[in-house]
Each structure stands twice: as structure tokens, then as C-alpha cells.
Amino acid sequence: MEMDNIECVSSSDGGGGMEEEDIRTHNHNHNNQFSSSKGLNNNGISPAATSVHELLECPVCTNSMYPPIHQCHNGHTLCSTCKTRVHNRCPTCRQELGDIRCLALEKVAESLELPCKYGSLGCPEIFPYYSKLKHEALCNFRPYNCPYAGSECAVVGDIPFLVTHLRDDHKVDMHTGCTFNHRYVKSNPREVENATWMLTVFNCFGQYFCLHFEAFQLGMAPVYMAFLRFMGDENDARNYSYSLEVGANGRKLIWEGTPRSIRDSHRKVRDSHDGLIIQRNMALFFSGGDRKELKLRVTGRIWKEQQNQEAGVCIPNLCS
Ligand SMILES: [Zn+2]
Ligand SMILES: [Zn+2]
Ligand SMILES: [Zn+2]
Ligand SMILES: [Zn+2]
């Protein structure tokens, strides 16, 4: 029974009357089978495991299939996302699709163990088929999104790659050291609509930190906000603290916090107000002069939290 189902997928050269679209699908499958017959693939999976894996690839969208896996009366399989798109017609044989689950293939999937797809980035983990996706969404080796906030940037990669990308492609200022003294000047502080984003990258303790400064509308009031993000994951971010200070004329605001990981989007950090927020009136007061120009001096420091030297003991921040 199981073999029947498996066979009907790989023999996608079945029943005539194919239309152009079907032929492409067929060729694609054929190419996959061909390339996998060359021995070990990139993931180091044996050819047998690869061909089983191919069975679990949706013939239409080529994504891995997860339950419910559907099939037509002739046994052509289809992922559940594609099923909703094909108007109840099998994309391979054009027969009516009905509502048949391919339980045998679902069972085969259950028995598989596969390496995390970030194996090439260093993840050594192997997972049962159905928990692999869950792991990959949270895998510590998964690439980071570009932390630049001023535009939609789709670049992903590891930290050294992103540091280079920020410097070369976004022309971001790079600083070395754990203290800073920054001046933000804006000639027309009335304009918050086209929020100004500023990003500076700091390199200290062998790590990289992003200092964000921007203007946005908080409720009815325009505000300025500065905050720090850590270029690494949440656990490592907790090893550091930072402070920001802004002021003039005998007044000052001080913010002290833990940098957020760049795993948290810029937007998420901003919307949780996890940083130094300066009301516009206060910002203009700090700017001095005729309040026509924004001139803020923000000083700050990054430091490493004292860690318990004994192995296996968690960091104070981690245990509440
Ligand atoms: Zn699909
Ligand atoms: Zn079919
Ligand atoms: Zn992983
Ligand atoms: Zn970018």
C-alpha cells in the first residue's frame, strides 16, 4: 500500500494529454532525480534518503509537504497550500482532486530524520521531519536580517557579512570603542512624517552594536528615540548593558538598558519603547538657541555585565 503511493509520485510521466504546464512540472522532477543520483548531496544525506525526501517535495511548488498531504485519484501528491490554489483539479493529470489524504506518505515523513537546513552555517542538529520546520524557525544558526531600518532591505546573512553590508551598501558609520558622544542635527525638527533614521555601528568587546536614532509620532506627539541593538542572539545580548544620556541647561535624561538582539525587528523594539525617548519639546529645549534646529548631543556607554565564573550557572539577568 505504501509502495503504491510512493510509486505513483515518482512516475510523474503518467497518462497523456499533458499541457505545457504539466510538462514543465514533469521535467523539473526529472532533473531533481537526476541530480540526486550523483551521490551525496550538499547536506550529506545519502542518495536513498534524498529520494525519499524528494517524494516529500510538492511537485507543484517544490516546498516540503506537511500534513495534510493531498493526492488525486491517480495518486499524484500535492501540498495543502497548492491544493487551495488549483481549483480542485490535479495539476499533473487534470482529474478532479477530491479530498483524499495521502496517509502513507505522511507516515513515511514521520519516520524521517533530517539535518537542520542551516547545517552549512554550523548547526549540527538532526530532527524528525515534522519538528524540523519548528526548529529552523528558531535555529540559532539561522541567518540574521539586515538591521538597517531606513528602507526595506531583504539582505540576510551572518554577523560579519552584515557588518560589511552595512558599511559598504548602507554607508553606515563604524566606530570602535565602548563609549560614544554623538551629535544629531536636524534643520527642520517639525518634520516627523518622513522619519529620519540614523544608524551607527559600534565594535567593542569583539561584538557589534547598532545605535539607532530616529523621529516618530508617538500617539499625537512627535518624539525622538535612541536605542541600542546587539548584533547576535538574545542570550548573548543579555551579557551587555548600555546607557544613553542627553541633556543641556542643567537638565538631563538618562536611559539604562540591555541591548535588544537584532532578531527583534527595529520596529518591534521601537514600538515597545525600549530605549531613550525624548519628547520634542524637551529635545528642542536641549537643542538651545531659537528652537528652529534640533541639536542633540547623545553620550553613551556599553559595558559587559559581570558574569558568574562558575560553569553552567546562569547569568543574573536570565533568572528572574
Ligand atoms: Zn505545493
Ligand atoms: Zn493526478
Ligand atoms: Zn538548526
Ligand atoms: Zn541592508
TrEMBL record:
Name the EC number(s). Answer: 2.3.2.27
> Mind naming one GO cellular-component term on file for this protein?
cytoplasm
Span of domain RING-type:
58-94
**UniProt-annotated stretches for the region Disordered:** 1-42
Q: Ranges of Polar residues compositional bias?
A: 33-42
Q: State the InterPro entries in the record.
A: 7-in-absentia-prot_TRAF-dom (IPR018121), E3_ubiquitin-ligase_SINA (IPR052088), Sina-like_RING (IPR049548), TRAF-like (IPR008974), Znf_RING (IPR001841), Znf_RING/FYVE/PHD (IPR013083), Znf_SIAH (IPR013010)
Q: What is a single molecular function from GO for this protein?
A: ubiquitin protein ligase activity
Q: Which UniProt keywords apply?
A: Metal-binding, Transferase, Ubl conjugation pathway, Zinc, Zinc-finger
User: What biological processes does GO assign it?
Assistant: protein ubiquitination; ubiquitin-dependent protein catabolic process
| Domain called SIAH-type: residue spans | 111-171
The biological pathway it contributes to is:
Protein modification; protein ubiquitination
User: Which reaction does this enzyme catalyse, per its entry?
Assistant: S-ubiquitinyl-[E2 ubiquitin-conjugating enzyme]-L-cysteine + [acceptor protein]-L-lysine = [E2 ubiquitin-conjugating enzyme]-L-cysteine + N(6)-ubiquitinyl-[acceptor protein]-L-lysine
Q: Which PROSITE patterns match?
A: ZF_RING_2, ZF_SIAH
Source domain of life:
Eukaryota
What is stated as this protein's family in its record? Answer: Belongs to the SINA (Seven in absentia) family.
The name on file for this protein is RING-type E3 ubiquitin transferase
